[in-house]
Amino acid sequence: MTFSLCAGFSSARRVAAVAGAIVVALSSQTWAQAEGGVSIDPNVFNMYLESRTQKPADQASPQEVAAVRDELTDIYLLSELPRAEELKDSPRIQAQLELQSRAMLAQAVAADFLADNQATEEEMQALYAEEAGRAPAAEFKARHILVETQGEATAVIAELDGGASFEELARTKSTGPSGPSGGDLGWFSPESMVPEFSQAVMSLANGEYTEAPVQTQFGWHVILREDSREAAAPPYDSVRDALKQQVESQKFQAYLLSLRESPAE
Question: What is the pTM of this model?
Fold first, then answer.
């Protein structure tokens, strides 16, 4: 059974990760005094260092520290030129600065909201039960032979009616990627296949193959349903993290919707 979790949460999760990064204060001011007489705030230096190395500032190597110092020196030197002051008044630059500022504040607010609205065990259990209730009741094991035309599929069915091996016909006639393995598709849930294919499989009994070719967007199929079983929900602990993300995503989306409907005056 497949749970449809985490669909809308990846961006909010990244927000929390970025806004929750630890800024490690430097005990020495040596790194803050860059070349060319440029003074760099240690907090700015640490934040940039962490963003470039993707690890805490105190874990950076001397080479990484030196590279970041050079990069920030160049940034400061260029941004403090008289020309930079002139360009800062450009409407486009003003818009970019405004957008960056608002994006950072939005990230901080989102992280703060998520920290104060974490998923409870009761909420995760409720979502688990809801998702389990939506899951398909059965899974199927099947093989198929995929060909380009209806006539080819009809000829395959005639050979099967005459006692030919389904697996051997799949190996010699199927154009699908499962052909070399005898058309084996393994176990699957109905929603994982295109509707025409799933409907055909569900209409068969175990051990039966389709009496007429089945057309899908991929071509013409002859399908053998080998087995079926009840679909079992994945263990709660195996999807707990995904459930947590889904619950928190729902809370955050509801919060955003409330802001849109009742914007602050």
Answer: 0.54
Domain assignments of the chain as residue spans, ordered by start: 11-111, 137-230
Quote the mean pLDDT of the chain.
86
Say which DSSP state 190 is in.
G
**Higher pLDDT pick, 137 / 208:** 208
Which residues have C-beta within 8 Å of that of residue 180, sequence separation ≥ 6? 171
Domain 137-230 falls in which CATH fold? Answer: Chitinase A; domain 3 (3.10.50)
Helix-helix angle 121-134:236-261, to 10 degrees: 100
Calpha distance 194→190 (Å, rounded): 8
Distances (CA, A) of 101 to 44, 104, 195: 15, 5, 47
Tell me which DSSP letter residue 191 carries.
G
With bands split at pLDDT 50, 70 and 90, how would you rate the model's confidence at 49?
Answer: very high
Count other Cβ atoms within 10 Å, centred on residue 174.
23
Spatial separation of the C-alpha atoms in residues 92 and 179, rounded to whole Å: 57
Cross-strand pairs, 223: 144
